[in-house]
Amino acid sequence: MPVSRGDMPKIVTRSFGVDGSNTIEGATARGAYSRVDKALAMTPAAVTDEVKKSNLRGRGGAGFPTGLKWTFIPKGSSTVYLVINADESEPGTCKDREILFWDPHLLIEGILLASYALGCHHAYIYIRGEMMREHQVLARAVADAYAKGWLGRDRPCAGGTFKIDVTVHRGAGAYICGEETALLNSLEGQRGWPRLKPPFPAVKGVWGKPTIVNNVETIANLPAIIEHGGEWFAGLGTPRSGGTRILCVSGHVAKPGVYELPMGITLREVIYDVCGGIPGGRALKGVIPGGSSMPILDPSEIDVPMEFDALMTDARIKPVQVRPGVNFDLGGGKQLRTMAGSGGVIVMDETTDMARVCWRVMKFYAHESCGQCTPCREGTGWLERITRRLAAGEGRPGDVELCESIAAGIAGNTICPLGDAAAWPMLAFATKFRGELQSKIKEANGVAKVPAATVAG
Ligand SMILES: Cc1cc2nc3c(=O)[nH]c(=O)nc-3n(C[C@H](O)[C@H](O)[C@H](O)COP(=O)(O)O)c2cc1C
């Protein structure tokens, strides 16, 4: 049953800003762990069915259906792991850290429910190394959940007893370790390099065992799904994306922040209604809808709903001709325009220098490329260097086309999608702000205003 916007409940952010909500006493008073007995009275398969019915889709970036992913665990697996991805390093994204800080027990309860459904008895939370404050809160929450017997103790369930242990593991601060297989390597104490897939983690994950990797926000939705049912959750969202959506809005808006919003809200509503518009009445120039790896949208494209499919299929971006006769289609024929990604909305007004933004984005991915795949290691470095000179007004004729060709050489040619994370935005900047990038070519300008070496970022 669809729920009107006014009635839209807060599912994962309801304790944000509430003093004491992250202590076990405060959380329990607000309903934490109240869904555990209900879930344990169901069969694990019934819990998974409820999650499938809910249309919950992963909030880590790709929007993969959560219940479906869980069914990829091979039947009869004796050891299964659940790994919570709390690495959150995508520029523009700052939602998981808020859940970890304000409502760690909601996450732990979600872990209990997911683990029961998966037949998992040991879950890991892989938390980004820089999140000191959140780690402290989370470690205390886990210790308190052990002390109260939610963790580490047999609890009666349909057909016997169920026990789950949770280990919190701190990363060392590398963006690549958010990629699920790099994360698993890092968790095992190895270098954080992505693994070739297949085998997918659901078949061969941490310690070689079937493993489900899910994002913090994904798992924090589970208690509400068990409490109210999958259909209720599905009814909150759009036909193929259930529930609400956290968006982290930054940049040129009057009220930046972390908002839990209806799944189908449009980007225009987010910018102008929720976030109070652009200060000074300035015009919008561009907006990145889901973290910096997602292709930028221009002002004519902001009536798109922020749910997972619309952002991909409502495309207007045209295939890019990288050389005569060779086109690179961002969507591989699927007309992909951009993606909902990790919910990091970055708003830029008319004063923004897009060449500089493009360079800054490329600089991030060049820095974070793990170096394992040649197209990404070399290509992101070249994109950074070429966009740096463009940003400095020292571009050379053919630079924009060169960037497109390099990006097309990276996309789809690497073990993990970090290469795409640089290539897609590059192609979108080159398509939508081509004139501005071209205007940075030195010959177009006459004399460069700032030497490339002095551009700081
Ligand atoms: C380079 C890279 C970085 C990523 N970083 C994160 C991250 O910080 N947090 C996250 O949940 N997913 C991240 N992902 C996505 C994960 O690989 C994985 O799809 C996700 O954790 C699955 O959880 P979900 O199904 O609940 O979304 C990243 C992917 C890539 C390619």
Topology:
Layout lengths: L23 H6 L6 H6 L2 H11 L11 H5 L10 E6 L9 H7 L1 H15 L3 E6 L4 H16 L7 E3 L2 E3 L2 E6 L9 H8 L23 E5 H5 L1 H7 L1 H7 L7 E8 L5 E6 L4 H8 L9 E5 L21 H4 L6 E4 L2 E3 L15 E6 L4 H15 L5 H18 L7 H12 L7 H15 L1 H5 L3 H4 L12
Parallel strand pairs: 1-2, 1-6, 2-5, 7-12
Antiparallel strand pairs: 3-4, 7-8, 9-12, 10-11
Helix pairs in contact: 3-6, 3-11, 5-6, 5-7, 10-11, 14-15, 14-17, 15-16, 15-17, 16-17
The structure holds flavin mononucleotide.
Structure summary:
With 457 residues, the chain is α/β, with parallel strands linked by helices.
Structural features, described:
The chain has 457 residues and is of the alpha/beta class. It has three domains: 232 residues, NADH-ubiquinone oxidoreductase 51kDa subunit (Rossmann fold, 3-Layer(aba) Sandwich); 114 residues, Ubiquitin-like (UB roll), CATH 3.10.20; 98 residues, de novo design (two linked rop proteins). The chain is built from 19 helices and twelve strands. It has a four-stranded parallel β-sheet with strand order 5-2-1-6, sandwiched between helices. A four-stranded mixed β-sheet has the order 8-7-12-9, with helices on one face. A hairpin with a 2-residue loop joins strand 3 and strand 4. The termini are far apart. The structure holds flavin mononucleotide. Flavin mononucleotide binds next to strand 6 and helix 17.
